[in-house]
Design goal:
Length: about 230
């Protein structure tokens, strides 16, 4: 089964591995949400295979393709070609990077009307690596993080990459913010305000693009993951 029903109206799909800088390979995941009118909202689309396409088509028409940060865009063109009626929505900075794609809009702090009754969103500003948009599926109380939270299983990387990944905090028992992202926050107050809003949603589940989903106690997991961001007393 290509799509796993995570809760009512929300599915997860694992994609192919991608190779990033310095040969680090990552597992990939996308999320599909069925909106009130039946249209599908696709978050961080993975490589489009015939199997994925058939599984998606079986649950509804693709209405929206969403890139939650400016790093997750490599498969968008294939999806846009396969689903020409779907709207593409870009994280801040992506439209400038992908001038070849026609975006319907840039994601901000207010959800666009087509999905605002089931999905909340907040921009996490002030990070020099990327500006990530975090989403919240209200009915299932699931928060969606793209790269800002990661949790790769012990043993995922080998050799020197395993050492670098462990030191960076990419490997662990629950999702955490990799150190490269922590040091890249130039405006911690702005980030803190965004995280406060996420915690205010009281998420039950946490889904990340690279790592296992958390299914219970999501708010506590997020409080631990962002403890380093708290102001020092
Ligand atoms: Fe990523």
């Amino acid at each position: 089964m290509m799509l796993d029903e995570f809760a009512d109206g929300i599915w997860l799909a694992n994609g192919t591995e991608v190779v990033a800088a310095m040969g680090f390979h990552y597992p990939t995941r996308m999320v599909v949400v069925r909106l009130t009118d039946g249209a599908l909202w696709v978050w961080s689309p993975v490589a489009l295979s015939q199997d994925i396409r058939a599984a998606v088509d079986a649950i509804g028409p693709v209405g929206y393709l969403v890139a939650p940060n400016h790093l997750h865009h490599v498969f968008l063109a294939d999806w846009a070609e396969a689903y020409p009626q779907a709207e593409l929505w870009a994280a801040p900075g992506l439209a400038e990077k992908r001038g070849d794609l026609a975006f319907a809009g840039t994601l901000g702090n207010d959800p666009a009307p087509p999905w605002s009754d089931v999905i909340e969103q907040v921009v996490i500003p002030g990070n020099r690596i990327t500006t990530e948009v975090v989403f919240y599926h209200i009915p299932s109380r699931t928060v969606l993080f793209c790269d800002l939270l990661q949790q790769l299983p012990v043993g995922w990387f080998k050799g020197w990459r395993a050492i670098v990944a462990r030191l960076d905090g990419m490997i662990g028992l629950e999702p955490s913010v990799p150190k490269k992202f922590r040091v890249a926050f130039s405006d911690k107050d702005a980030a803190r305000a965004a995280v406060r809003r996420i915690l205010g949603w009281s998420p039950k589940a946490v889904v990340v693009a690279h790592g296992a989903p958390v299914t219970t106690d999501g708010t506590a997991v997020l409080e631990r993951a962002f403890a380093w961001l708290r102001p020092r007393k």
